[in-house]
Amino acid sequence: MKLPFAEAFEVLQERDEHFEKITQETYPSNIISAQILIIALFAFCYGIIMGSYNSWMQAISSGAKLMSLLFLTLIICFPSFYIVQLVLGSKVKIKQLAVMMLSGFLMTTTIMLAFAPIVLLFQLSGDNYNFLKFLHVGVFVFSGFFGMRAVLDALRSSFADQGVYPQIGLSIFRVWVIIFAFVGVQLAWNLRPFVGFKDMPFELLRQDTQGNFYSSMIKSLGEMVGPPNVRKPQESNQNDSPEKKQNDPPKQSEEPIKEKPESAEPTTDDSQKKD
C-alpha cells in the first residue's frame, strides 16, 4: 500500500487545509505510518551528522538514539496529555490528536534537517566541542518551537473554534509542552553521548551518571567564553629525567685546592737538613 507522503507534508505549506482534514477526519487512514517513517528518517539523518564529529560508529549510534529520543518522549508524555483533555471535556479523538502531534514532530524534524548543512559546515571548519553542543541545542529549541506552535494553532483554529475543544485546554497544552521539554532533556542526558569529544573512544552510553544537562551546559559555556588555559613552562631541573642525571659526568669542585702555608720560622727538621 502506498503511503500518503504528500498529505503528511501538507503541514509545512497547506497547514489550514491539513488541519481541516484532521478535524473532519478526511485524512488517509495510513497517514500515521507515513508521518512516523518521515520523522524517523529525518531524525536519523540529523543524528548521523551530530555523531560524525567523533567517528562513524558514533554517527550511526547518535542517529538511532535521536530517533528513539523523539518517539520515547512522545510515548511517555502523550497519555497524560490525552487523559487531561478528556477530563477537561475535549471531544477530540485519540487518532486525531495523534495525527496532530505527529504533524508537529514532522515539522520539527524537517526544520532540524534543514539546518544540517550549517551544522556540518561548523563541524568541518572548526574544532570547538562546546560550541557545537550549544549549536545543536539551539537547533532543537528553534525547531521544537515551530513544531509545537503548529500543534497549538491546530488546537486553536480547528478544534476550539468549533466547540470540540475547551479553551482552557490551550493553556494546559502550553504547560504540557514545558513538561515535554523536561522529559526530553532528561532522556537525552541518559542516552548521551550524541556528539562526543574528537578523540574520545566510542561509547554507546556514557557510564558517568553524575551531574545533569543544565550543569553540563553551564560548564561548557564557561569553557567556551573563558580565558584559554596557558600551560606554564616547567623548570629545567623538573624536566630532567633520572637517567639523564646518571649519565651526566660528575661535576668538578670549583673550590681551589688550598696550599700548605710556609712557616716563617724554620722547624727542627729544616734545621737538621741545613746541617
Topology summary:
Layout: H1 5-8, H2 10-13, H3 15-24, H4 31-51, H5 56-87, H6 94-114, H7 116-125, H8 129-159, H9 168-191, H10 213-225, H11 236-239, H12 242-247, H13 268-274
Helix pairs in contact: 3-8, 4-5, 4-6, 5-9, 6-8, 8-9, 8-10
What does this structure look like?
The protein has 275 residues and is mainly α. The protein has one domain. The protein has 13 helices and no strands. The protein has helices at residues 5-8, 10-13, 15-24, 31-51, 56-87, 94-114, 116-125, 129-159, 168-191, 213-225, 236-239, 242-247, 268-274.
What is the structure about, briefly put?
The chain has helices at 5-8, 10-13, 15-24, 31-51, 56-87, 94-114, 116-125, 129-159, 168-191, 213-225, 236-239, 242-247, 268-274. The protein is mainly alpha-helical. It has one domain.
Structural class: mainly alpha
Oligomer: single chain
Range of helix content: 55-70%
Number of domains: 1
Number of strands: 0
Number of helices: 13
Task: Fill in the keyword field for this structure.
13 helices; 0% strand; 68% helix; mainly alpha; single chain; disordered C terminus; 275 residues
